[in-house]
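A protein record pairs a chain with a discrete description of its three-dimensional fold. The following entry can be read in just this way:
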Amino acid sequence: MDEVWKREEVESPCVKLCIVHPEARICIGCYRSIDEIAGWGRLTPAQRTAIMAELPSRAATLTKRRGGRMARLGGKD
């Protein structure tokens, strides 16, 4: 691979499951806010690293499901 295309930077946490939670206003796939997603390419490595460190704690804000199979069957979340 050409050295020009090798870049040492923080990878995107995107998992290609891009749905914004209507209440939390964060992506349910990567847990970033819309502003973080839109500005990811302009952030410094330090800013990206700081966001990446916060992402696991954001998952807890999305514990309640909005529907799915269990909701259709009348089950609990």
Q: What stands out?
A: The helical segments are 34-39, 45-58, 69-72. The chain is about 30% helix and 0% strand. Residues 45-58 form the longest helix (14 residues).
